[in-house]
Design a protein that fits this description.
With 96 residues, this protein is α+β, with helices and mostly antiparallel strands. Helix content is 51%, strand content 12%.
């Protein structure tokens, strides 16, 4: 997995705040929704950085990447339910 710089990690945090669990965003809409103050503060970030961060977040299973009817990539925040107490306990027990 690619190692993110400090600025890219901040971008990843912002993207997780911006993306919705219920609605998928295209890249254009995501660019519109990003906080303008953040963009002014981090001028050196590029579109390639944004795509890299989205790919890393997908590998971390924080977001889902799919395609819409127009074959454009869409991004949506992923919801994975937490493990139950028994699964956590079993994992802890097997780790002993």
């Amino acid at each position: 997995m690619a190692k993110l710089t400090h600025q890219q990690e901040k971008l990843a945090e912002l993207l997780l705040q911006t993306l919705s669990f219920y609605e998928a965003y295209t890249l254009e809409r995501l660019l519109i929704e990003i906080d303008k103050d953040f963009v002014e503060e981090h001028e050196k970030l590029t579109l390639e950085d944004l795509e890299l961060v989205l790919k890393v977040l997908s590998k971390r299973q924080s977001i889902k990447i799919s395609k819409n009817l127009h074959k454009e990539k869409i991004y949506q925040r992923a919801y994975y339910p937490k493990r139950s107490f028994w699964k956590k306990f079993r994992g802890w027990w097997e780790g002993l």
